[in-house]
Specification:
The complex is a heterodimer of chains A (465) and B (344). By secondary structure, chain A is of the alpha/beta class. A 7-stranded mixed beta sheet of chain A has the order 11-10-12-13-15-14-20, sandwiched between helices. In chain A, strand 14, helix 9 and strand 15 form a beta-alpha-beta unit. The longest helix of chain A is centred in the first third of the chain and has 15 residues. Chain B is 42% helix and 10% strand. Chain B is an alpha/beta fold. The N and C termini of chain B lie far apart (46 Å). The chains are: A alpha/beta (465), B alpha/beta (344). The interface between A and B is large, with 76 and 82 residues. Bound molecules: thiamine diphosphate and magnesium ion.
Chain lengths: 465, 344
């Protein structure tokens, strides 16, 4: 069957071009790879290579023709054993089922109408461990968040040989913040791995190992340093499942302290919750106490998706009772009502909960009964729980140490506009870190962070009291 | 099988093991035939992809592998089942060489539901758990750390598989490459770093971007042995691959192969390649073409008949046409696919 040569496009946006030159003439033998013509646009000149073998039977568009439409027939090739002159006279037939512009346009198009997102957060319910909250009758042990995190890792490493921990100073030094204390002694250097100072590299190695099915827990000494690795967290870990059409997942946990510590200045004091919360394909967790930290880290390690687990240095030493059970696994994506109330809702997470709960106590003295919600998971965010609370209280204040613009509070405010507008009796107010790099001086640092007084003030402004 | 001496580089004299081209490492008739078939499939597939791009059936970026076929084909001839393969965005050849379905590859290029990533990855992003092909990555250099992680996984599991990690001469200047080299040697990870030096990173010639243009020496300060290989001669590639892979399987750590190769086409489809002369391209094609080299051996040394070779050509053409046809007629993904595969 004779073969059509079509005017090619140099780019998806090109509609027409000039056929500058023919480098082969009618009757010439051509084979794949031969340059047969040159075309030009205002941007570039390109060569047209033959893909087929045969004899150039007929040139349909002469050299020098301007504005030749993409996909127009420009020549016909007679295939092996065909009579070139006859073919030239008759014109070509379709090539591989898609020869000319009309055939291309008719290529089957799926329905183009936009489809609504199935739910607020597209994660299937089955993606989350729903084993629930603290089992009844279980023994409680008071421990620090540091110990709870260590126990979570140790338990999961005992349970699954594919789980390993890597990061700077995690093994011999026992962790820069002593979170991995004792892990090297129990699990050995094969599973508790000291890396060089090389965040970009070891994040990538962790993701590569996870793509092949291992379950790395990658510790960043702090999340400030994970900026060097953010490409692998987002581009390699979060997107591969989607880009592979669901074939290849990435069961990895990136964890470490996030946000301001104390007096360490601008480069060591950033809250990344809002950054990671924007990324589809990531789960983002930020616990405020030891019990949640343990139950959620265990859930994160068991989860088949990439998880960013944001801890807080100041919270490491704080103790609460933690269930003594290897089966204590909390559901990802579920907020917790830390203090029930009726007059106003305060939503926060991680160290922000410290301000929120203290403010609620002060407000109680003045007869303002605040409900405090701990998000625990930033993504997927438990918007339903916030809406349910706002329906009850009609008022909402958000609290976070991160910056105001495009922060977690901004997201919650927007969600409430969309889902709880009719129940709001006052505008949502955000309490955030100030819109400045973190200063070093003690007084300035204090000013840069949110305070209990600011939360109290915000609540008064929305309750008009 | 008659191969050239399997010369292993000595670890202490890291990177000293430079054996340019290693002379002719003879192939058997069957090996030449199989290399011919594999390389021709890639060449014809890419030519067809270029044509379909010109017809508007393929969009976005489309980076063709034409000219570099001997690299991946020679490497695959020396690898075994279970060895992991990972590369950048110039990945069609690697997928075909790994045995991934040409129809699925082409349909991914056209963004159709039968594509290997259901149309959601495109030319630069395809994967196969079954064939141990780990993509398909669009961030220059990212695959180097990921490929080192694949080697980490082999090491962790204690099997004797290796990771074949491909990247370009341009990618070789990324910082994470050296972070990876360091950890790979430190932990003795079984990874072969295959630097496909095709002389250009987009429009930048190697000597305009690289202080050290002998890429086999890039592992020197980490004690990683390296070789420069004639990447246009599939026999030289296979011989070097055997040395490198044996080194890795023996637990000696990573190995660098600089494949000296050439891409005939522009960087991607919309690149008119003004930064090099036509003569340079023409000379390469005439004197070094990897497929012509094998074809010549087949006719002159192995006395393969025109008919025998024509039969291979026809078979390859059929596979490619079939994949083009499928990729043209397969429907686009269902709109509901927008929301799937975000989380497991
Ligand atoms: C981090 C990053 N920077 C820049 C680019 C844009 N880019 C894509 S390919 C390329 C050239 C890479 O050349 P090389 O590594 O030699 O590979 P080749 O294309 O020759 O196969 C560049 C700059 C990118 N994709 N990623
Ligand atoms: Mg290059």
């Amino acid at each position: 069957m004779p073969i059509d040569v079509l005017m090619p496009a140099l780019s998806p946006t090109m509609e027409k071009g000039n056929l500058a030159k023919w480098l082969k003439g009618e009757g010439d033998r051509i084979k794949p790879g031969d340059v047969i013509a040159e075309i030009e646009t205002d941007k570039a000149t390109m060569e047209v290579e033959a893909v087929d073998e045969g004899v150039l039977a007929k040139i349909l568009v002469p050299a020098g023709t301007a504005d030749v439409a993409v996909n127009q027939k420009i020549a016909v090739i007679a295939a092996e054993g065909e009579d070139a002159s006859a073919v030239g006279a008759a014109g070509g037939a379709a090539l591989s089922g898609a020869a000319d512009a009309s055939a291309v346009a008719a290529a089957p198009k799926a329905e183009a109408a936009p489809v609504a997102a199935p739910a607020v957060h597209a994660a299937p319910a089955a993606a989350y461990d729903a084993s629930g909250e603290i089992p009844a009758g279980v023994e409680m042990v008071t421990m620090t968040m540091r110990e709870a995190l260590r126990d979570a890792m140790a338990e999961e490493m005992r349970r699954d040989g594919d789980v390993f921990v890597m990061g700077e100073e995690v093994a011999e030094y026992q962790g820069a913040y002593k979170v991995t204390q004792g892990l090297l002694q129990e699990f050995g250097p094969k599973r508790v791995i000291d890396t060089p100072i090389t965040e970009h590299g070891f994040a990538g190695i962790g993701v590569g190992a996870a793509l092949s099915g291992l379950k790395p827990v990658v510790e960043f000494m702090t999340f400030n340093f994970a900026m060097q690795a953010i490409d692998h967290i987002i581009n390699s870990a979060a997107k591969t499942l989607y880009m592979s059409g669901g074939q290849m997942g990435c069961p990895i946990v990136f964890r470490g302290p996030n946000g301001a510590a104390a007096r360490v200045a601008a480069q060591h004091s950033q809250d990344y919750a809002a950054w990671y919360s924007q990324i589809p394909g990531l789960l983002v967790i930020a616990p405020s106490n030891a019990a949640d930290a343990k139950g959620l880290l265990k859930a994160a390690i068991r989860n088949p998706n990439p998880v960013v687990f944001l801890e807080n240095e100041i919270l490491y030493g704080q103790s609460v009772p933690v269930p003594k059970s290897e089966d204590f696994v909390l559901p990802i994506g579920k907020a917790r009502i830390a203090r029930p109330g009726t007059d106003v809702t305060i939503v926060s997470f991680s160290i922000g909960m410290t301000y929120a709960l203290k403010a609620a106590e002060e407000l109680a003295k003045d007869g303002i009964d605040a409900e405090v919600i701990d998000l625990r998971t930033i993504r997927p965010m438990d918007v339903d729980s916030i809406v349910a609370s706002v329906r009850k209280t009609g008022r909402l204040v958000t609290v976070e140490e991160g910056w105001p613009q495009s922060g977690i509070g901004s997201e919650i405010a927007a969600q409430m506009m969309e889902k709880a507008f009719d129940w709001l009796d006052a505008p949502v107010v955000r309490v955030t870190g100030k819109d400045v790099p973190m200063p070093y001086a003690a007084n300035l640092e204090k000013l840069a962070l949110p305070s209990v007084a600011e939360v109290v003030q915000a609540v008064r402004s929305v309750t008009y009291r | 099988m008659a191969f050239a001496a399997r010369k292993s580089a000595s670890a202490s004299k890291a990177a000293a093991a430079k054996s340019k081209s290693n002379g002719p490492a003879a192939f058997s008739r069957d090996e030449d035939l199989s290399a011919y078939r594999e390389m021709l499939l890639i060449r014809r597939f890419e030519e067809k992809a270029g044509q379909m791009y010109g017809m508007g059936l393929i969009g976005g970026f489309c980076h063709l592998y034409i000219g570099q076929e001997a690299v991946v084909v020679g490497m695959q001839m020396a690898s075994k089942d279970g060895d992991a393969v990972i590369t950048g965005y110039r990945d069609h050849g690697h997928m075909l060489a790994c045995g991934m379905d040409p129809k699925g590859v082409m349909a991914e290029l056209t963004g159709r539901r039968g594509g290997l990533s259901k149309g959601k990855g495109g030319s630069m992003h395809m994967f196969s758990v079954e064939k141990h092909f780990y993509g398909g990555h669009g961030i220059v250099g990212a695959q180097v750390a990921l490929g080192t992680g694949l080697a980490f996984a082999h090491h962790y599991r204690g099997n004797d598989n290796v990771s074949l990690t491909y990247f370009g001469d341009g990618a070789a200047n990324q910082g994470q490459v050296y972070e990876s080299f360091n950890m790979a040697e430190l932990w003795k990870l079984p990874v072969v770093y295959i630097i496909e030096n095709n002389r250009y990173a987009m429009g930048t010639a190697v000597n305009r971007a690289s202080a050290q243009t002998d890429f086999s020496k890039r592992g020197l300060s980490f004690n990683i042995p390296g070789e420069q290989v004639d990447g246009m001669d599939v026999r030289a590639v296979k011989a070097a691959a055997e040395r490198a892979i044996a080194w890795c399987r023996a637990g000696k750590g990573p190995y660098i192969l600089e494949m000296q190769t050439y891409r005939y086409r522009g960087h991607s489809m919309s690149d008119p390649a003004k930064y090099r002369s036509k003569d340079e391209v023409q000379k390469m094609r005439e004197e070094k073409d990897p497929i012509e080299q094998v074809r010549r051996r087949l006719t002159e040394e192995w006395k393969a008949s025109e008919d025998e070779l024509k039969a291979i050509d026809a078979k390859v053409r059929d596979i490619v046409n079939e994949s083009a046809e499928f990729a043209t007629n397969d429907p686009e993904p269902d709109p509901s696919e927008l929301w799937t595969d975000i989380l497991r």
